[in-house]
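Q: How do we represent a protein-ligand complex in a form that can be generated token by token?
A: Start from the inputs.
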Amino acid sequence: MLTVDRSSVVEWYQRNRARSRAIFDIIDPSAYYSRPIALRNPIVFYEGHLPAFSVIALIERGLGGPKVDERLEKIFERGIDPDSADAAVPRSGAATAWPSRGEVLQFADRADAAMLDALARAEFRETRPAMEHGQALYTALEHEAMHQETLLYMWHRLPYDQKRKHAGIQYELDGAPPSSDERIRIPSGIATLGANRETATFGWDNEFDQHQVHVSEFGIDQHNVTNADFLAFVEAGGYRDPALWSPENFAWVQAEKVWHPAFWIRRDGQWFWRGMFEAIPLPGAWPVYVSQAEASAYARWKGARLPTEAEFHRAAFGTPSGPERVYPWGDAPPDATRGNFDFKSWEPVPAGSRPAGASAWGVHDLVGNGWEWTSTIFGPFEGFAPMASYPEYSADFFDGQHYVMKGGSAATANELLRRSFRNWFRPNYPYVYATFRTVNH
Ligand SMILES: [Fe+2]
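Then emit the structure tokens for the protein with fe (ii) ion bound:
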């Protein structure tokens, strides 16, 4: 029987639910059935999906318990929308007859009651495969937190008149744009990827097995590439130069007429940041948010490249003396001085403005203020096995078409900032809170 701190998992579930409610409350009712991002599900799906998934993962798969509502769970289980964006696959769901919001909220209340009862009282028997090491419990809890980030970047695409503006938002704008030509040398050494199956409290299937990789010496940007840095690439015609892009990526740029980051707006000859609640004159010191394709083209323009997943680990968690750290700044738990994460901000903050979060080598913002693109194709580590509580989580994406992102953004919950956590997207998906830095040898 698994021992867990009941009050802390109850508190975690309630904290998740309160945050999800606040996120859905941003939406104007007129937008409830709209799709902020084409080919993704309409908003209504996600409000039902979060409680439905929790019930399916923990109560049904983990505990062998009953369904809360067979019909609504079927509609909301996976829908047509895997957790990582798969923009190339049409998953319209257009034929689905979506329930009314009242029906969704009523279902959510019943699901919450069942979940809170299970968290407080159920026997967590590890003899069930989905419950080994408490897997189904953490699957449910982390799944909701991960969706909160995907919801927020979807909300970023919605027209401003479909959102209720939060009053009095202060943006951190100041900070000299750091020069991205300053690279820090990282000597060759070992990087430990993945999590230890025996000692980790929880990890998703793609985080196992833990293994060590030798990394050759390289140089890495001290700071993320900023909007100001990236503007020089735009103005130099980087989007029109096929030599900077792979053939597939250049075909995307041409077909979609992409000529600037999706988070930028061009208005009356001026550049603006597409903020959550308003357009903001482009803050030069913020990290630029772009797709992996755009990041790769910029890196090539600089005569550099994107880091590999192992190089990211080495720069973030390695130390000159050898032992690796839990977080870039050390082993202390995340707090707001260490980086821009855990929903403290709707937008980025200036690159380099959380120096207490720098790594042992002095590289800033590796965790927080935007996920970091790597050049590593998402794939299984040796020892990978799909998890019983959510077998389709990773395996559907080992197709050579997705790249690993590391770190975290302003909308990444503290619980997801662990070293072994991996995120992944297609290279031409431009809507995520993802930035990058460049490396050379
Ligand atoms: Fe999901």
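The chain has a mean pLDDT of 93. Residues 57 and 326 are 28 Å apart (CA to CA).
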